[in-house]
Design goal:
The structure holds three protein chains of three kinds. Chain A is an alpha/beta fold. Chain A has a single domain, classed as 3-Layer(aba) Sandwich (Rossmann fold). In chain A, 28% of the residues lie in helices and 26% in strands. In chain A, the strands form two sheets. Chain A has a five-stranded parallel beta sheet with strand order 3-2-4-5-6, with helices on both faces. In chain A, α3 links the parallel β4 and β5. The longest helix of chain A has 18 residues. Chain A is globular, with a radius of gyration of 16 Å. Chain A starts with a strand and ends with a strand. Chain B is an alpha/beta fold. Chain B folds into two domains: 142 residues, Aspartate/ornithine carbamoyltransferase (Rossmann fold, 3-Layer(aba) Sandwich), CATH 3.40.50; 159 residues, Aspartate/ornithine carbamoyltransferase (Rossmann fold). Helices cover 36% and strands 14% of the residues of chain B. Chain B is built from eleven helices and nine strands. Chain B has a five-stranded parallel beta sheet. Chain B has a four-stranded parallel beta sheet with strand order 2-1-3-4, with helices on both faces. The longest helix of chain B has 21 residues. By secondary structure, chain C is of the alpha/beta class. Chain C folds into two domains: 92 residues, Urease, subunit C, domain 1, CATH 2.30.40; 310 residues, Alpha-Beta Barrel (TIM Barrel), CATH 3.20.20.140. Chain C is built from twelve helices and 19 strands. In chain C, α4 links the parallel β9 and β10. The chains are: A alpha/beta, B alpha/beta, C alpha/beta. The interface between A and B is medium-sized, with 32 and 35 residues.
Chain lengths: 175, 324, 443
């Protein structure tokens, strides 16, 4: 099957900008915003969103990454994966508004693992979820608070997110 | 990834660096609010110690528990293992108990190899020291310590290229020396060994090392790390050297020799130390000493090894992909 | 007793004729016609060799019956083409008195698979301190002529000197296990780069060579015969060659395993390959083969050393030293010496029968296959080949290093004093052999 581009670079930039605004709007009071991306591409997206937020409202946010490899529920069924680094920004996550960021929301299992991992790092005031693409087919009661694009798909299709920092260009395709 | 960790000779550069990198991740968790990680939940790790070694046993126990494994410790002393029951029977007992991994320390060379290959048990075998053969996790933690001291936060993905390491002492009987020689060489370090000729194995000219008989010669080569091995005073009886005093004078890292070291030279020791024999207190307590780092890093390395050998299914491929 | 006619065997692989046996003796050779009632063995395509004589066998009885007995060990011997074995003295009790050697000899006689020649201990309890009653053993019904503390070296030079002198008094020979004990304390394998890598304590070649050098000089000084057990290094070969050139009465043996296997097998820590002396390097193996071909090493002796499974299914350091070898010896000699062109079958007969019998003073082997000689012979199919399994082992123990190896040659018939102990490649049952043997000896 031929890959079809569903988001071009400009679309991605626009989507992230919108998410940044939504996150700020939803922030009540003086909460500290911590964007934690799930490696690899979620971490890149978290950094981008945080930069936009910082331009709009400097000094209220920080970004890091949260590796979920050791918390996956399919660990014993797959070959061993090498974990990616977890970087919690200075100040930690206690009492912060944590926004988990991932590229694609699908079964919801990654996010479940991320919630488990998060608990081991501290106790945020609230946890939100931002994703670039929500392709449906949830297997757990999890939903995203901020979505770049809802993309109806069939389970046989494959959604690929490419980001400049990792892959050389910005693009979301489905095939 | 390999199925067992028996010898550092089984690790190629990529595999060795992968273990060190995962150990970096494990080390990070040490300063989290909750130190425990879940990947070995439901797995059983057996510490099978035929030889007393409290520090190694505690290090492995702590590593396995931090990964949420169930840990069973089998100590040879005072059990059926101590005399009569064979390694085979013990292995089959542990197999029946559903062990997923066995960390084995044994006074005989090759014991870990036999557990892994004799067909008695189908578990991951981790060699925690076998006779005078190898002690791979010690070498890995030593390499990890050297890499951290040298590259700090920028360690990931790196080897030890260009680092000159002098290993000093009872090379003949040291499993730490063997594991380090192979591993450090694989990681690109230049290994020198130093010992009186009585404590060098026959055929050392075939090892990938530079041999020195005098410590001062080795120090003149400006090593980036000096690893002092524990010398056992029983060796005197077997005429390997005449007296502690002579050994300390010729091959000990004395306070005077400390002054010959470069400013960044690390002083390492796998412990436990014989202060005043192979290492002076001046050396052991100096800022160059990595002795305590080595202990701390031991837990991270053992977590990494346990995670890589036990967490996943046995296929060898790696994937970093998440859900799509 | 009916006679046997062996038809069409090739004697020593040289020329084909028929062999007639009656009352345990070869009575005719040539082109013969079967007589009425004579049992005919069709040996077309088979090679006839004299019955093989092993100068170095551990039968383990008395005391080690869990690993071997005189009966099971001589059955293994017969399966390997042997008709005489020398039973080593390291039993429990040690064969250091006339009583023990006579018991062992009697057991062999009763079972009839092979002539059992007990070896007497050189020192009491193999302890290396006080001479055993060598005269009593020599004059016993077992007529002991070979004395050895095998398993231990007679390391005290004064005791060794006395032993050489005293044994010579009774036309005996000391078979020395050449191993300097202090140089081999805790030793586990050949000392070299590999022992260093594997962390197994090294067994230096010099520990063997130094004792051989000392003992050939002692033998020369006192004018006695000396036999060196299981020579394993190229350096030992040089020492023996030098001694022989000086006219010293030294003989030497090599084991089949040292003719084929090398120290590399220790790599997997499989204790089947743990043996004393240890497996050595390629160059040692080649030196042993060359020495056996040129006569520097006189004979092949098996050092058949049975051990129960549990003595080998443990760590290398805990495991017992030794390998069984009676069943496979001839195949290993064929592979290493005959198939390589180093030895003709006549040479095989020399190193596996005539010379060991001569060293051990075993009567009846001086003129192999000749009319008038006792009918000790083995018929082999040299063209056959098989992958060895434990089913090919006929003793009580399974510690063969050759299981899984493809080896040439097969013993099809063995006759001990005209009694078939192996018939059509199968061992004959114990009752039949014992009865037939008794009939022959009663005459």
């Amino acid at each position: 099957m031929v890959a079809r581009t569903v988001l071009h670079d400009a679309d991605i930039t626009r989507a992230l900008r919108r998410i940044a605004h939504e996150v700020l709007e939803s922030r009540r009071g003086d909460g500290r915003l911590v964007f934690l991306g799930i490696p690899t591409r979620g971490a890149t997206l978290a950094l981008r969103i945080q930069q936009i937020v910082d331009e709009i409202e400097p000094g209220v946010s920080s970004a890091g990454s949260l590796d979920i490899t050791l918390y996956r529920d399919d660990l014993a069924r797959t070959p061993t994966r090498t974990p990616a680094p977890t970087r919690i920004p200075a100040g930690g996550i206690d009492d912060a508004i944590v926004v988990l960021v991932d590229d694609v929301l699908y079964s919801g299992r990654t996010i479940r693992a991320a919630l488990d991992a998060l608990v081991d790092h501290g106790r945020p005031r609230v946890v939100r979820l931002a994703v670039l693409v929500d392709r449906g087919h949830r297997e757990l009661p999890i939903r995203a608070d901020f979505v770049g694009k809802n993309l109806p798909s069939s389970t046989s299709e494959r959604v690929s997110v490419r980001l400049t920092e990792v892959d050389g260009n910005d693009e979301v395709t489905i095939e | 990834m390999i199925q067992h960790l028996l010898s550092t000779r089984d690790l190629d550069r990529e595999a060795a660096i992968r273990i060190l990198d995962v150990a970096e991740d494990m080390a990070q968790t040490a300063d989290r609010e909750v130190r425990k990680l879940p990947p070995l939940r439901g797995k059983t790790v057996v510490n099978l110690f035929f030889e007393d070694s409290t520090r190694t046993r505690l290090s492995f126990e702590s590593a396995a528990k931090r990964l949420s494994a169930d840990v069973i410790t089998f100590s040879a002393k005072g059990s059926s293992v101590s005399k009569g029951e064979s390694l085979k029977d013990t292995a089959q007992t542990l197999a029946a108990m559903g062990a997923d991994a066995i960390v084995v320390r044994h006074h005989d060379s090759g014991a870990a190899h036999q557990l892994a290959h004799a067909g008695w048990i189908d578990a991951a075998i981790i060699n925690a020291g076998d006779g005078t053969h190898e002690h791979p996790t010690q070498a890995l933690l030593d390499a990890f310590t050297m890499r951290s001291r040298r590259h700090g936060a920028d360690s990931r993905g790196r080897g030890l290229d260009g680092l000159r390491v002098a290993i000093v002492g009872d090379i003949l009987h040291s499993r730490v020396a063997r594991s380090n020689v192979w591993l450090l060489t694989t990681l690109g370090a230049e290994v020198h060994v130093v010992a009186p000729r009585t404590l060098l194995p026959h055929g050392i000219e075939h090892w990938p090392v530079t041999v020195h008989e005098h410590l001062d010669d080795a120090l003149a080569a400006a090593p980036g790390a000096v690893m002092m091995l524990r010398i056992q005073t029983e060796r005197m009886r077997d005429a390997f050297f005449p007296s502690s005093r002579e050994y300390a004078r010729e091959w000990g890292l004395t306070a005077e020799r400390m002054t010959q070291l470069g400013p960044d030279t690390m002083v390492m020791h796998p412990g436990p130390m014989n202060r005043g024999l192979e290492i002076s207190s001046a050396a052991a307590d100096s800022s160059a000493s990595t002795v305590l780092d080595q202990v701390t890093n031991g837990v991270s390395i053992r977590m990494a090894v346990l995670y890589l050998l036990v967490a996943g299914s046995s296929e060898t491929a790696d994937s970093t992909g998440g859900e799509r | 007793m009916t006679g046997i006619l062996i038809r069409g065997a090739s004697s020593l692989g040289e020329h084909t004729d028929d062999i007639r046996i009656r009352d345990g003796v070869i009575i005719a050779r040539g082109s013969l016609t079967a007589e009425l009632g004579e049992r005919v063995i069709d040996a077309a395509g088979l090679i006839a060799l004299p019955g093989l004589v092993d100068l170095h066998t551990h039968l383990r009885e008395p005391g080690g019956e869990a690993s071997e007995t005189v009966l099971t060990g001589t059955r293994a011997a017969a399966a390997g083409g042997f008709t005489a074995v020398h039973a080593m003295a390291n039993t429990s009790p040690v064969a250091d008195t006339a009583g023990v050697v006579e018991q062992v000899q009697r057991l062999g006689e009763r079972h009839g698979y092979a002539t059992v020649r007990p070896i007497g201990a050189v020192t009491v309890g193999l302890a290396g301190e006080q001479l055993a009653e060598i005269g009593a053993m020599a004059r016993s019904t077992a007529a002991v002529r070979v004395f050895s503390d095998d398993g231990f070296c007679v390391h005290d030079p004064l005791i060794m000197r006395r032993a050489l002198e005293y044994v010579a008094t009774f036309d005996g020979v000391v078979a020395q296990h050449a191993q300097e004990p202090r140089l081999t304390q805790g030793a586990q394998m050949n000392e070299g780069a590999l022992s260093g890598e594997l962390g197994l304590a090294g067994w230096p070649a010099v520990a063997e060579e130094a004792i051989i050098a000392r003992d050939v000089l002692l033998a020369q000084h006192v004018g006695a015969r000396l036999h060196i057990c299981h020579v394993s290094t190229a350096g030992s070969v040089e020492v023996v060659r030098w001694a022989k050139a000086r006219g010293i009465a030294v003989t030497a043996e090599a084991t089949p395993h040292h003719l084929l296997l090398t120290e590399d097998l220790a790599r997997g820590y499989d204790a089947r390959f743990k043996v004393n002396p240890p497996l050595r390097r390629d160059e040692d193996v080649l030196a042993l083969r060359a020495a056996l071909a040129d006569g520097t090493i006189d004979i092949v002796a098996t050092d058949h050393a049975p051990h129960p499974t549990e003595a080998k299914e443990c760590t290398w350091a805990e495991a017992a030293f030794g390998m069984v070898g009676l069943e496979s010896a001839l195949s290993i000699v064929q592979r290493t010496m005959v198939d390589t062109g180093l030895l003709e079958w006549r040479g095989v007969a020399r190193v596996l029968s005539t010379t060991p019998a001569e060293i051990g003073r075993v009567p009846g082997y001086a003129e192999p296959l000749e009319v008038g000689s006792p009918a000790h012979l083995t018929l082999i199919d040299a063209s056959s080949e098989r992958t060895w399994s434990v089913a090919d082992l006929r003793g009580r123990s399974q510690n063969s290093p050759f299981v899984g190896e493809t080896l040439p040659g097969r013993v099809v018939h063995t006759l001990h004093r005209g009694v078939s102990t192996v018939l059509d490649a199968e061992l004959v049952d114990a009752e039949t052999v014992a009865a037939a043997h008794e009939a022959v000896t009663r005459g």
